Every structure is written in structure tokens, then in C-alpha cells.
Amino acid sequence: MVLSLLVMISLCTGCTSSSPQQGSYGTVVTQTSVAAPETPGPTQTLPHNYEVSVEVHSDGHAHAPHVIFTFQGGYGMNVIPEIDVRLTRSDGIVENDKMVSPLTIGQSISLDSTNTNTDRAEVWVITPSGDRVKVVDKYVPFRSYS
Asked: What pLDDT, in 10s, does the model give residues 24-42?
């Protein structure tokens, strides 16, 4: 009885490990044992004077795929202090990075991804008043055939 309890405890402690590692592009990579990313949720609209646009897409490379977050500009590009990005991969690895002011059109972040269609990308814009507004939350297809 005691032995089976110890075995169960040792198995459960290995289920939720988290170990930060330094990734490429200066990102902090946090490894978790999530089976698949959560379902994307609702996004919010920025006030007109803070509007900015961030494009998110996969590069579609089979050998070393990446999801690329590209700043497209917007009315608020000179007042937004920071844009936070997160990629939750289908293999459970979570990568976070940020773009900080001064923001420039075409500025991008490239994060390692998987070759599945269930990597989840999220983007938050930090307003000058400190509010964190989620503007993108979606699955990023590995390849698009359009």
C-alpha cells in the first residue's frame, strides 16, 4: 500500500515540470507537459488612438518551422510601449517574447514551432496606461495552400 502510494506520487510529480531555458532570438522558453494548446479565446479591440496591427504566420519550413510575428504599424505605433507575444506549441513548449518601443513597421519575432496545425499564437498590446489587451489568439496553420 505504501509502495503503491510512493509510485503514484513519483509519477505525478513528473507530469507538470517547468524548466525555463534560453531559446533563439533571446526568448525565454518554458517547457510544460501540456498535451495540446488550449482553444483560442476572444480578442479585444484597441481604442482607435492605440490601434496597431501584428501579422502572424508560419514560414512553412518542414525541417525547422517557425511562427513569425510581424509588426504592421498602425495609428498607435508611436505611443504603444510594448507588444507581448506567446506561442504555445502542440508539443507543450511555450515561448514568449516582446517588441518594445520604438516600434518599426516590419519589425518581427520568429519563434520555433512544430509542423502541425495546432500551434497557438497570442499577441497582447500594452497601452500607455498599462492595460494589457489581447489582439490575436489563433491557431497558426503549418502551411497554407491558397
From this structure: 444 455 554 455 557 898 9
